[in-house]
Amino acid sequence: MDRGSLQFHASITTSARSLRRYAADHDAKPRGSFMMKQNRHHERMTIRGHLQPASFVPWIMRHAAKLGLVHHITHASSDRIELDIGGAAELIDMMEMGCSLGPIDVWVETIDRAPASKKHMALRVVTGRLHLI
Fold first, then answer.
1. Residues 38-43: what's their mean pLDDT?
2. pTM over 0.85
């Protein structure tokens, strides 16, 4: 072995050893989903205004997914969109702020939030993601 390959081999061995040591020190065993550890809230969000559901509904779904929120659109019309949303309270607040600004082609007048009844909610897994139904 030449000197360069020895240094490369040593750095890989050191990196692997460091990872094992980090995992042992920090008990890096998976203990369930990150979302399951959060303080989960379930809310019904009602958005009113001059809305374009064809563009706003995909926008809502994309941004809720980026925030890691469980979501389900229950009603969509040109004057009202209702969605059930679940996740950390701070992330739901961020989603409300995002929806109030919305895409350029919608005008949001009000957003009402109310606690959603847990007995009417169920979680299902669709293509590896949690969705609220």
1. 78
2. no
